[in-house]
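Lab channel / #folding
Pinned by the channel admin:
"Please post every new chain as: sequence first, then the C-alpha cells as a reply. Keep commentary short and put observations after the output so the thread stays searchable."

First post following the new format, from NK:
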Amino acid sequence: MGVRFQYDDGTAVTVNCADQGALLAQVAGRLEAGQGFAVATINVDHLDQLRRDPAFRAAYAAQDFVVADGNPIVWLSRLARQPVALAPGSDLVVPLARAAAAAGVAVALIGSTPAALDRAADALRAAVPGLRVALTLSPGFPFDPEGAEAGAVLDRLAASGAGLAFLALGAPRQERLAARGRQQVPGCGFASVGAGLDFLAGTQRRAPQAVRLVKAEWLWRMLSDPRRLARRYGRGFALLPAEVRRAWRLRRTDGAGQTRP
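Reply from TO:
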C-alpha cells in the first residue's frame, strides 16, 4: 500500500501503484481480460484540488490505479515510509499504448485539439507498430464531464470499440470523465494523461531531460506559462507543510494505527 492522503470528510486517496512497472502489470491483465479500469496520476495541484473539491474526491474514489505524477508525492511517500516511484502521466502514454497493442486492443485519444490529436495518433502509430487508433475526439470548451456532451463522447467511445482511452482534458475534467466512463463504458480503460498527448504531438514542449533530472520540471512549466500556472503552483506548495506533518504521522504509525518503534 502506498502513501495515503486523508480529507476532513473521511475520504482518502491512496497511491496504490508503486511504480510504472506495477501499473503496467495491472493494466496488461485488465486489457487481456477485456476489463475496464481508470488510471489517475496525482500531483501537488491535484492535492490542492482534492482538498477543495468534493466532486474531485469522488472522481478519485472511482479510479482503480493511482500513481505519483510529481516529485513532492514521491518525497511525501518516503517520509511516510510508504515509498513510491515517480510515474508521470506523460511517460505512461507510449507504454500503455504498447500494452494495448500487445493485447490487440484499440485506443482512443480524447481532448486537446483536432490537429494535436492527429499528430499524436501518428506519433503513437510510429512508436507502437500495429497499434490501432479507433477514435480521436476533441470536445468543446468549456467541457462539462457531467453534461450531455460528455455522454455523447462516451457513446462515441463505446461505438468505436476502443478498449483504452487516453484523456487529455486537464484536471479535474479528465478524472471526472473517467469516473463517469467507468459506469457508462465499463469494458474500457481510461488513462488521464494531462498534456501527454500534446507532448507527443509537439504542440507543447516538455522540459528537457536535464531539467527533469534535477527535479525542476514544475519550474520549467511554470515559467512557460506563468499567468496560468504561477497561482496553481503557489497554492500547491502552500499546502505542503500540512502534508509533511501528515506524512510524518503516517511514518510513526502502522496500518492499524499502532505506533512504530
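NK: The chain has one domain: 4-251.
TO: also worth noting, The radius of gyration is 18 Å.
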